């Protein structure tokens, strides 16, 4: 039975990890309710402790997601110290800034990150042929669904848990983000080790450890996605206001099901 088939029914029973077998721990049956209880015990824990809990319970069936924002840099730094063999995946929409690819290459050199590129398999000309040119201007939800949500869903079907860098104070929508929650869309566990951190804490960690970051952050781009949907913001403005500027869209869709249902 493959991971996708396992996910068609709940609850999810995970195979025991090598760590668990060595410790004589019994296989855990994860449900939305049981992960909620774990979340309550993790509240107040450090990001390192949350990551260790994740690796203890899910490795090697756990991956870290990054969009190369400052939170992702912090998590990659921590993961490189705790479990360096962890796969870090990113969604390559074909529309990322060149600075983002430069940062990816720098992270490989500096932290030895094992990146996996997740791609829709649909080129921009092909998308234009099917949906018309510049779909992001007319229907960004469909564009994000094609280039981000579907490829990520297919990729995550091979795993039992994923880690993200979202934080509660980023948007009103993210305010209830748990440290550990159930991802109903992907039927798996989702860890958000930095959920309780502030932006200042993230940047303190980056500077204290002399970590690389996207140079565009120094030029008025606090939140960076596809170049087609990212604008410079004025000092003091909402840091995410440069994303899909001028539309009501605030999320690409990869985090919606988890936050909405909790
Ligand atoms: S951020 Fe914009 S260009 Fe990128 S996938 Fe979403 S709508 Fe398309």
Low-confidence stretches: 1-6, 8-15
How would you characterize the largest beta sheet?
Answer: 6 strands, mixed
- Return Rg in Å: 18 Å
Number of helices: 11
| Order of adjacent strands in the largest pleated sheet | 5-4-3-6-8-7
Q: Which word captures the global form?
A: globular
End-to-end distance = 29 Å
Strand residue percentage: 5-15%
Bound molecules: iron/sulfur cluster
Strand-pairing-aware structural class: alpha/beta
**Share of helical residues:** 25-40%
Number of strands: 8
Round the mean pLDDT to the nearest integer and report it: 88
Helix/strand order = HEHEHHEHEHEHHHEEEHH
Write up this protein.
The chain is an alpha/beta fold and 262 residues long. Helices cover 40% and strands 12% of the residues. Strands 5-4-3-6-8-7 form a six-stranded mixed sheet. The chain has a two-stranded antiparallel ribbon with strand order 1-2. The N terminus is likely disordered. Iron/sulfur cluster (SF4) binds next to helix 9.
Describe the structure concisely for a colleague.
The chain has 262 residues and is α/β, with parallel strands linked by helices. It has helices at 3-6, 18-23, 32-42, 47-58, 70-82, 98-111, 124-131, 135-138, 140-156, 199-208, 256-260; strands at 12-13, 29-30, 62-65, 87-92, 114-119, 161-163, 180-183, 188-191.
Please specify the SSE layout and strand pairing.
Blueprint: H1 3-6, E1 12-13, H2 18-23, E2 29-30, H3 32-42, H4 47-58, E3 62-65, H5 70-82, E4 87-92, H6 98-111, E5 114-119, H7 124-131, H8 135-138, H9 140-156, E6 161-163, E7 180-183, E8 188-191, H10 199-208, H11 256-260
Helix pairs in contact: 4-5, 5-10
The structure holds iron/sulfur cluster (SF4).
Iron/sulfur cluster binds next to α9.
